[in-house]
């Protein structure tokens, strides 16, 4: 029997160690919605009301599965990187969602607490892209954290929340919806 080259053994060992070091349950951690399918157009009921938009401004239903074992809380962000402003647009910033939660109802008021969006308001603010823009992509990210709270307040913004969770993320689940407005 021929001996394996040393680098092949090292690579095989590192692969096994990397797999074991991955957060438990992270591979199956997923986010979905009964309100819209992944990659599909979000309904008008989720569209912002104001600034020329006439939707219902109702947050979509969300559910998640495969919560990583060490999760102590969740944070949810909704961000539009296609927005024509520096840093994109934060549509929803929700923090301190308990680890036992597995979803949010449409128009959710809980569990968790809402922070400040780019609309300079606390709570969900739906899609409202400029008329005639190609459909924007709304990235819903559920962050599983290793701490029960992160020290956010209703005045915390999306970028501030991103800084607060740094170093505490176990896994993330992503769902993208699209929305556009005709001229």
In short:
By secondary structure, the chain is of the alpha+beta class.
What attributes characterize this protein structure?
183 residues, alpha+beta, Phosphatidylethanolamine-binding Protein, five-stranded antiparallel beta sheet, three-stranded antiparallel beta sheet, 13% helix
Would you write up a description of this structure?
With about 180 residues, this protein is α+β, with helices and mostly antiparallel strands. The protein has a single domain (about 25-180), classed as PEBP-like (Phosphatidylethanolamine-binding Protein). Helix content is about 15%, strand content about 30%. It has helices spanning about 5-20, 160-165, and strands at about 30, 50, 55, 60-65, 75-80, 90-100, 105, 115, 135-145, 170-180. The relative contact order is 0.22.
Instruction: Quote the average pLDDT.
Output: 88
Query: Could you say what the CATH topology is called?
Result: Phosphatidylethanolamine-binding Protein
Q: Using the 3D structure, state the CATH architecture.
A: Alpha-Beta Complex
CATH superfamily: PEBP-like
End-to-end span in angstroms? 71 Å
Number of strands: 10
Give the helix proportion (percent range). 10-25%
Q: Which strand order does the major sheet show? A: 8-6-5-9-10
Low-confidence stretches: 1-25
Q: Radius of gyration from the CA trace? A: 19 Å
Q: Which term fits the overall shape?
A: globular
Number of helices: 2
Strand fraction equals 25-35%
Order of helices and strands: HEEEEEEEEEHE
Domain module tally: 1
What composes the largest sheet? 5 strands, antiparallel
CATH class category label: Alpha Beta
Structural class: alpha+beta
């Amino acid at each position: 029997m021929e001996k394996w080259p040393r680098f092949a053994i090292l690579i095989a060992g590192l692969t096994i160690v990397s797999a074991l070091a991955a957060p438990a349950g992270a591979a199956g951690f997923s986010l979905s919605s009964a309100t819209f399918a992944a990659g599909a157009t979000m309904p008008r009921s989720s569209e912002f009301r104001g600034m020329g938009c006439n939707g219902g401004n109702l947050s979509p239903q969300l559910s998640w599965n495969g919560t990583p074992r060490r999760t102590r809380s969740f944070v949810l962000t909704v961000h539009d990187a296609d927005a024509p402003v520096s840093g994109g647009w934060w549509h929803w910033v929700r923090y301190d969602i308990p680890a036992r939660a597995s979803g949010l109802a449409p128009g959710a008021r809980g569990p968790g607490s809402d922070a400040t969006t780019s609309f300079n308001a606390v709570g969900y603010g739906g899609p409202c892209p400029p008329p005639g823009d190609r459909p924007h992509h709304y990235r819903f990210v559920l962050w599983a954290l290793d701490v029960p709270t992160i020290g956010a307040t209703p005045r915390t913004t999306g970028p501030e929340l991103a800084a607060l969770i740094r170093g505490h993320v176990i896994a993330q689940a992503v769902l993208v919806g699209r929305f556009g407005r005709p001229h």
